[in-house]
Amino acid sequence: MTLKKTFTRVITYTLPDGTEAAAPHSDTVTFTRSFTYDEVTNEAFDYGDWVDSNGSATATLDAVTPPTINGYVLAANSPVASLQTIQADSFGDAQYIETIAVIYDATTQTATITFYDDTTGTQLTNETTTTGDMGTKGSSIISIPSGYTLAAFQPNSNVTVQAGVVRYTGTFSTSKLDDAVVHLVHQTISVDPLAVNALPADLINTNDVKRTVTQTINYALNDSGTSTVLAPADTQSVTFFRSFTYDLVTHLAAATGEWAAISGADSSFTSVTSPVLPGYTLNDAAQSTIAGSSVTAEADNNVITVRYNANQNTPLTVTYYDDTSKIALAGNFDSIATGTTGTQTTITDFVIPAGYLVAEGQSDSHITKSSNTTFTYKGVFSGEDSGNAVVHLIHNTYTVDPNGDLTTLPTGLINQSEVQKNSDADNCLCITKWYASGNDSH
User: Fold this and answer.
1) What is the pTM of this model?
2) Using CA atoms, how far apart are residues 388 and 25, in angstroms rounded to an integer?
3) Which residue range(s) make up the domain with 195?
4) Which of 31, 53, 262, 272 is the 20 to 30 Å CA partner of 304?
């Protein structure tokens, strides 16, 4: 017959993968009962009630708070050890064990992934993160910053490289031990601009791989400077490239090759014939042609100034237009003056053809009417038509009344019959009548 029995409550703590989260916790209650003992038969009989060590038929087990496990939380459906009352007659075995299995769920953890530039020996400010359940192993692909490639050696155990793909393979935890460092080197490419006639858009040190040598020929007046430009400059240029290694991180060119002109281009300046400029003469006849020359990438830009002297007998011509008859007068009526090319002049002594008056409202900007028979020219001796001018004229007319006096007729009158009439056709008795005429006089 049983005189002693125990009730044991065992609390286990388990992680999601079945491993033990913490050591089990156990509480035991022991019940005993009194009896009468026969010393002959050595038997117990006449049993009393079951009681605990306090003499009570009921024992109490306190509630047990599950331990805090870093990175885990109590599962929503997990049982817990609450306050429990145990009666001796509630179980029959001499040793009764009750198990309460407390289960934890993993929390989400974040691992930080940083990047180290092995080329420059510096840590990048770029970083990324990946997440996973506490205690689980990661497998996410890590995207590396633009312009970099993976270093051959990756010392961090949380990084795995396979077939050129880098993955985070650390175990997620609440400590920094799950963080990772990816080692990178600068990605470089070989560039031959001679083949593509182009450079990377982000290239910083362009001048190290591209050079343009320019020859400029200026055409100027032979004065103390080049301020008086006589004709547009002639410009030639030759562009040189050389191959190089391009760093996709720093955007710098290095390890350069030999200079060469753009494919198909001539690495020389061609000869240039100096322009013939009306009103000007070359100061140095040897500059009538600027000879061609070969060019190298190391050559400096070249500026050549071809100088001209202004001619001192440059003509300007004033022609005349008959507004009355709507015709231009013949060239023998032209007025001509000479002077130094490029100089401003004012002329007031040009003489207009006889029989004409200066018209009102001259359309030529060089001409201003001074009086009925005089005008003022203002302009520049240019050696070109721009210095010439047209003066508009009208016929000079006046009224003639001969009144029987033949001597009063204009000597140059052409149509005399229009203003003189005889009364006797046989000239026996001549009566001459004169009429005032409004005809034009020449």
Assistant:
1) 0.62
2) 121
3) 191-309
4) 262
